[in-house]
Amino acid sequence: MSSVIGRDLLYRDFRADGQLVLVIPQRVIADDDRGLLTWRPIGTKYLFRRTVDGRDRREVPLAERDTVEWTLAPLEWSGLHVLHLFRPGHAHSVWWMFNPDLTLNRWYVNLEDPPVRWSGGVDTFDHALDLVVMPDRSWRWKDEHEYLERIGHPAYWDAARAAEIRAEGERVVRAVESAAFPFDGTHLTFCPDPYWPAPFLPAHGWDRPRAVAPEESS
Q1: Is the whole-model pTM more than 0.90?
Q2: 176: helix, coil or strand?
Q3: Could you tell me if 111 and 125 are in contact, meaning their C-beta atoms sit under 8 angstroms apart?
Q4: Average pLDDT by consecutive 10-residue portion of the chain (218 residues)?
């Protein structure tokens, strides 16, 4: 992917079986050796997987999710602005979650496959287990029960892969506790240009197959 600062890209999340779960446009802020940094303001329109009768996935037991009909429903991002860092070679991304007045509400660490870039965006596979890190760097696990219940499910991970996911989270915890990048104060004074347009969800191309890392395709 040849990134251009200021352009929009698509952040897409898939299940391991290739089913698309999330499509959300974000504005490219920086693209360097620290990673791809994007901006997702409150009000961004996106697509998220829901049942055709409007239920969130958390309302459907895991054992029943293959028995119901799903769709990608249009939604609007609300609550907090997000500065989102995709880190090459790292099985997580980091979100600076800002209040409407642009003060830091928390960091959010999304454990996921390392990002795979393509001409229009970034693809990944969410690992359910996340970290919530407060401004004072106190932290807690999030959605641990979802991560645990998926162990052994064919669309997710086995016990060995689950151990790798947990180990990645523990590496991030060490960075948090030592106030290392990206938890060292970087980007806490970020201020978007008020004239930037909202990231745009295109009418076509967002549903292309998941991009594959070069080592996976060889």
Answers
A1: yes
A2: helix
A3: no
A4: 79 91 97 96 96 85 81 95 97 98 98 96 97 98 95 92 98 98 97 94 94 71
